[in-house]
Amino acid sequence: MADWPKLEISRRGVLTGTTVTAVAAVTPALAEIPASSPTAAVATMPVTFNVNGARQQLSLDPRTTLLDALREHLHLTGTKKGCDHGQCGACTVLVGGKRINSCLSLAMMHEGDEITTIEGLGTPDKLHPMQAAFVKHDGYQCGYCTPGQICSAVAVLDEIERGIPSHVQEDLTAKPHATNLEMRERMSGNICRCGAYSNIAEAMAEVAGARA
Amino acid sequence: MKAFTYERAKDPVAAAQAVAGRRGARFIAGGTNLLDLMKIEVETPAHLVDVQDLDFDKIEETPEGGLRIGALVSNTDLAADGRVRRDYAVLSRAILAGASGQLRNKASTAGNLLQRTRCPYFYDTNMACNKRQPGSGCAAIGGYSRQLGVIGVSKSCIATFPGDMAVALRVLDAVVETVDASGKTRSIPIADFHRLWGDRPEQDTVLAPGELITAVTLPRPLGGRHFYEKVRDRASYAFALVSVAAVIQPDGTGRVAFGGVAPKPWRVEAADALLPQGAEAVIRRAFEGATPTKDNAFKLPLATRALAFVITQART
């Protein structure tokens, strides 16, 4: 058993256990490939970034995603883990004012960055206009995707204001407007299983209208 | 996720050396595709060299009248650049047809070129896949192949290159600029950048280990009207079943490349010449020797109709 930590354990490996052990014994180099060896402990690395205006210093396993750093280490559990593969948008946060999937980014890659989560947009006493509009228009049902939807919605209106084009724009060189079609296209990276989409679009339209 | 070590590179040659000199080392830029694959252990790098601090984040005009796009320019910034929207609209259109706003904010120009196939058997570590595990076989051949390739595929692999941006770059005849661990640079025409799978489907591109993309260069603008017609299962945020990138001149001549059909953006110059004759003539020539399966044979008529739609628009 003492040799086990050096072997890659796969279903195939277990089935042909004796063969694998024999091969490993004569070719020790095979067992030294770091990527295929189970690792006992991982050296942590330091990283410092700002979250919602507060400086945070962490020492993390390099595998830690920005999402897990926020939720598990900083206990900012407003940001949600949905698919953990960048498909659902529940983990959307703002980095340097731009929305990203925090599940598809390593915490280490954010040294010095300014990160805003749903907790940094507004508080229960002082809601961000987009949060207030989601409440008013019933832009959610179970609420699990909501923090990601709101972070994304805030960024979408900013992207439209900055003239970032979209797939549904007829004239690519024209300035985009916050139409229903534009918002639906731009929000396609945020999935809502409850299907609150039409109310989310109404909440966004109200905030966009108030700005214009 | 397998354990790995991490470093942030400060200059391109040092980055190339850090990857070339270490088994299992990989570059990471946006990370949107690599981290996704690392989580399911399709990718298992032992060391990551983060290149985000390198000075490759600008879009500059070249003396030849084209544009030099830094490898780290985000997909959002590239699609939004005024010069690209005006002179290379097919490129903006292709980028905006792909992924989501969140992903485009993080994904880099070089990383987009290096994204891996979305073949479901490549993602499923329980299945044989020559691309993921060389020599293990191909479960896609004889499996469910609706999304997979119809041309340029091999007996080892029938996966497609999944991207949109590169299809537009192929129409524009872009050039990929690289540097290696010895500091040597090279320019690779986009036509030669992605490989046909042959019997080595594990290798997606012609890049050598540790060779780092520094920029993508666009030649002078082509003029004409620019189109990117993408057909997919959802109206937004889905990979192409078939896509058509085209630049059509007022006299009906032009260039066309197809996405979602082959291991690389698919363009046959001899088929370009048939554009004035209409979509069927182009498709017959461009897809000569195609080997569709019964699941994906629909891609040929779909490509014909998508191109016919583009040609009709170009005439109005």
How far apart are the termini of chain B? 52 Å
Q: Whole-number average pLDDT of chain B?
A: 98
Percentage of helical residues of chain B?
25-40%
Uncertain stretches of chain B: none
Multimer state: heterodimer
Number of strands of chain B: 11
Number of DSSP helical runs of chain B: 13
What is the H-and-E element order of chain B? Answer: EHEHEEEHHHHHHHEEHEEEEHHH
Beta-strand content of chain A: 5-15%
Number of helices of chain A: 8
pLDDT below 50 for ≥5 consecutive residues: which ranges of chain A?
Answer: 1-33
- Determine the fraction of residues in helical runs of chain A and give it as a percent range: 25-40%
Largest sheet of chain B: 5 strands, antiparallel
Structural class of chain A: alpha+beta
Taking the sheet with the most strands of chain A, its summary is:
5 strands, mixed
Instruction: Show the largest interface.
Output: A-B, 46 and 43 residues
Coarse morphology of chain B: globular
Radius of gyration of chain B: 19 Å
Give the end-to-end Cα distance of chain A, rounded to a whole number of Å.
69 Å
Structural class of chain B: alpha+beta
Shape type of chain A? globular
